[in-house]
Records
---
Amino acid sequence: MIDFLNHFLLFTLAGIGMLLVPLAIGRLVRPRLPSPEKDAIYECGEPTIGSSYVQFDLRFYVVALLFIIFDVEVAFFFPWAMVYGNAMQLADGNLGDEARRTLTNRLLTAPGEVGQEITADAAHWLGVTGLIDILVFFGVLLVGFAYVWKRGDLDWVRAVANAPTSADRS
Amino acid sequence: MSNQPLFWIFALLTCGGAVGVVISQNIVRMAFSLIVSLGSTAGLFFLLEADFVGATQLLVYVGGTLVLLIFGVMLTASGPFQQIRVSPGETFLGAAVGLLLLSVIAFTVIDVEWDTLNAARTEASPGAESGNTARAIGLRLVGIPADHEIGVHEGRGGRTGYLLPFEIVSIHLLVVLVGAAYLARAKRRVADGSTGGEN
Amino acid sequence: METPLAYYLFVGAVLFVSGIVCMATKRNGIAVLMGVELVLNGANVNFVAFAHYTPLGLDGQIVSLFVIVLAAAEAAVALAIALNFYNNHQTIDVDRGDKLRG
C-alpha cells in the first residue's frame, strides 16, 4: 500500500510539474508587447457582449436529465457485466477443472479457498437470471425514454415550429 | 499499510470544500467547492477499499449530479440574483448552531469505543477486503445474497440479495424521468407565452 | 497503523453539518440543493467507513451506491421544481416562495 502512496504522489507531482514547466518556460522566453487588442477577451473574433453568466435555454435541461438517468444506468451495468461475462465463461460445459477453479475464485473474489467449483448449470442459471434482471431494468428505463421521445421533449425546434398549438396533450 | 498522508490530503480537501460551500456567497464558487469536496470523497472511498463506490461517486455524482446542478446555476443565474445576501445575524446564528451540532457529533464519535468493531472485522466477507468489489456488488445486485451460495441455488427461496432494490431503482428512475420532463414541459409552455393553465 | 474509524466519522460529521448549515442559511434554491448533496455525502462516508471497519461487509457499500443513485434522481426533480419556481417568480430566492398559489 506504501507503493500506492508513492505512485499517487509521483503522479501528482509529475502532473503539476508538467503543467508548470511549460508555463514557466513560456513566461521566460516570450516577448511582452501588450496592446488593447491583445488584452481583450477572445470570443471567436467577435467583440464580447456582457458577462459570461448568461441564462441558458431551458431545452438544455431535458438533455441533462436524460444524461443523468442513463449515466446511472451505465453505472449499474458495470458490475452486472463483470458477473455475466464470468458466468458465461463458467457455463461452458467442457471447461477444464483448473480453469473452472480459477474462474470460480475470480467470480467470488475469494483468494483461493472456495470449497467447490461452480458447475456449468449453476453458472448458466446465474447468467440467464442476471440477463433477465438487467433487461427488466433497461426495459423500464426505455419506457421513460420512449415517453419523452413521444411527447416531443427531444425535438430541438418544436417551440418554433408549433408554438401557438402547444396544447398538444392527448 | 500506511495510508495516513493520503487520508489527510483527501480529508482536508473534503472538509475544506464543504466549508467553502457554506461560507461562499457566489453560487458558481459554491459549485466549484462542491466539486472539490465530492471528488475528494471519492478518494476517501478508494482508501476504504470501496473501489466501485468510489468510481460511481466520480461517474454519477461528480460527472452527473454536479453537472446538473451547474446547469441549474446557469439556467437561473441572471444579474442581481447571482448573489443573494444573507444578513450577518443569520450567518452568525448558522455558524453557532453548526459548531454546536458538530461538537455534539464529534464528542459522540470520540466517546464510543470503536476498537471492538475492529476486532470483529476479520470475519468479514473476503470480497470487501481485497478492494476488488465490483464483481461482489454485481452478484448481490443480480440476486445472490452471499458469496458462497451460487452452487446451491436450488434452495434459493426467499433470498434475493439486492435484486428488489435494484429493480425499484429502475422504476424510480422512470418516475423521475417522466416527472421531471413533465415539469420542464410545463415551464417551457409558460416560457412560450401561450396558456400554461391546463397544467 | 491504519487510519482509525473515528477520523472517517469526523469527516462525515463535517460534511453533514456543513450541509445542514448550508440548507438553513442559504437563500438561493440551488445552494439549498447543494446542502442536500453534502448531507447525503456525509451519510455515504459513514456507510462506507462502517462497511470497511465492521463485519457488515459489502452491505454498507451497496447502500451507499443506492444513496448516490437516489441523490442523482433527487437533484433532477428538485432542479425541475427550482426551474419552475424561477420561471414563476423570476427569482431563485426561496424566501420569496411563501405563497401557496403558484
---
Amino acid sequence: MPEIMYREALNQALAEEMERDANVFLMGEEVGKYQGAFKVSQGLLQRFGSARVVDAPISELGFAGLGTGAAMVGLRPVIEMMTFNFAFLAMDQIFNGAAKIRHMSGGQLRVPIVFRGPEGTGGRLSSQHSQVFDSIYSQFPGIKVVAPATPKDAKGLLKSAIRDDNPVIVFEAERLYAVKGEVPEGELLIPIGKAEVKRVGKDVSLITWSRMYYYVEQAAAELEKEGIHAEILDLRSLRPLDEEAILTTAKKTNRVVIVEEGWPHAGMGAQIADLLQHKAFDHLDAPVLRVTGLDVNMSYAANLETLIQPTLPRIVDAVKQVLYRQEK
Amino acid sequence: MASATKKETLLSMYRSMVLVRRFEERAGQQYGLGKIAGFCHLYIGQEAVAVGTIEAIRPDDYVISAYRDHGQALARGADPGMVMAELFGRSTGYSKGKGGSMHLFDIEHHFYGGFAIVGAQIPLATGMAFASRYRNEDRVTVCFFGDAAANQGAFHESLNMASKWKLPVVYICENNRYGMGTDFSRVSAETDISKRACAYAMRGEQVDGMDVLKVYEAVKDCAEYARSGRGPVLLEARTYRYRGHSMADPATYREKSEVESERKNDPIPRLREYIIRTKAATEAELDAIDQEEKKVVDQSIKFADESPEPSEEELWTDTVVEPGEPDVHPRERVLGQQVKWPSYPSGSELNVTWQLEPSDKTEKKVG
C-alpha cells in the first residue's frame, strides 16, 4: 500500500469526489492559484477550473453562507476554512444556517455541505491561531463532526463527508498535514460515526482522536515497556459518537483515560466521561481520567506551548493513576 | 403610476395585495387571542414590494427572505391555510409547526425561507445564484431584506462576491425606515442604501415601494439585467410598515402623525384607484375580489384552528437526513396533492462550463 502524507490523502479525496460528481466544488481562501495555504488543494484548480476551485475573498461569513445557499439548491460545496480559528466569523452561517435549515423547513431542504480545515496547535502561533473547537461544534444537532488522525482516515472520512446529505465538519490539524501513512489507492469510504481500535490492549483504554492519537501511541509504547498493555480507541467521529465502541473498550479494560487537545471545561472528554459513568459504571475499576490542554490561552513561547498541550508524562501519569500504580 | 400593465396582471396584483393585507390583519388579531405566539412580524404597509416583485419574476426563480416573510410566501403562491397553520404551530403548517412565523419555506414555489438572523439570508441568496450560474441556468434569485440588514457584514461580503462573479441576484432592500425601533438614519452614515452598490461596482437604484406598478416594472428590468449575465442589482424599495416591528412592539419611537401621513400612501388604495381610473376593472369587480380574499383568510384560520399540534414523534425528525430519506413535500403531506418539486442534474449529467477567471496554464506547482 502506498505511503502518502495526510494532505495528499485529503487531496486524493477531493479530486476523486470532484471527478465523480460535478456538483462538488471547493471554495475558500487561497485554494486555487496559491494551491492551498497548506497545499491540500494542490493541482485542483488546473484540473477542475475556476468555477469548481474558487478563490474566495477573505469573507468567511460570506462564503460559508454562499456555500450553504448553493447546497440548499442541490450543489455539494466543500468550504475550506484556512483554519477554524477564522471560522468564528462564519459560525452564524454554520450554526444558525446550515445546521438548522432541514429543521426550519420541516424537512423540505437538505444541506449537503462540508466545512473543512485545520484546528489545534499550529506551532508558535499564540492564542488566536491555536484553538480546538471539538466540543463547540459537536454540541449542535443537525451537523456531523469528524476529526481523523491518520492519512487513511482523512481520505475515507472526507469522501464520506462529501457524500453525506448533512453539513459535516472535517477537523484536520496543521501539524498532521505532513504526517505519512498507508492509504489504499482508489475508492475508500470510512463511515461517519465509527471509531477504530488502533492498538489492542487489556489493561487500560486510551480514548482519543485527531492529533492526540500520536501522543497516545507514544505513551502506549512507553507503558508497554513497563508491562502495561494499553488499548487505543481512535474516535475519528465526534458526532455522532460511536458509543458502542467506547463502551466495548471500557468494559474490556475497566479503566479509561481520555486524551484531548482541547480545553477541559465543558470539553468533549466530559461528554465521554458522562457516557461511561452512565452506561458502564459497574465495569469501571477506577474513576475516568482526562488529560486535556491546560485551561489557559495558548502562549507563543516554545516551552509554554509544549506544556499547555497534553504531554507524554501527563498521559503516562494518568494511566498509572487509573491502574493505582501511582505513588502519590 | 406606470402604465401599460395588462388587466390580468393588475388584478392579480390587487388580489395578492388584498390577500396579504387581510391575512396579516387576521394574524395580528389571532396573536391577540393567543393562537399565535412568539415573534410575529406583520407585513402591513409593505405589500407592494413583495407583490410587485413576485409578479415580475418567473415561477422558477428563487426567492428568499428574512423573518417578515408571510407576505412574500403568500404572494409566491403558498397555501394560506398552511401558512396560518404554521403560525399557529400546527402539524399542517409548511414546516409541521416547527418553524413558525419567522421560518416559512415553500420549496414547491421556490420560496426558500424565512431567516431570523438579520441579513443572514443574503449570503444564502448569493450561493443560490452561484448554483444557477454553475449549472448554466437562466434563473435569478431574489433576496428580500430590511434596511437594517444593509449594515451587516453579510450584506457587504455578499455584494462583493456577487458583483465580482456576476451572479444573477436581485437584492431587494425593503427600506421601511426602522430597524426594530431604531430609525435607520440614526445609525447609518449613508442613508441612501442604493448608493452602497457603487462600492461593489454594481447597479443600484431606488424605487417607490408604495407603488406596486413601479416595483413591478423596476424588478422586471432588474431581473432581466441579472438574468442576462450582467451581474447583480441592488434595488432599494422605499416603503413603510404601519405596525410595530413585531406584535410585541407598540412603536412608540415614531410620531402618530408620521404613520398617518404614510397611510395616505397606502399601496392598496393607490392600485385600486389606478385600476378604476384606467377602467381596467369596475368597483364591483374589485369588491368581489375583496370578498373572495376575505373568505380565503377566514378559511385559513378555520383550517389552522382545526389542525392538530405536531405529534411527539416529530421531535426526532428533520434534524439529520438519514440515507435514502426523501424530502418532505408539504402540500402532498397535508393536502394529498401531487406537487412538482425542484430537481437538479446528477453529478454525472452536469457539465460545468463556467469559468470565474480566465484559465492560467502557466501556473507552476508550489510547495
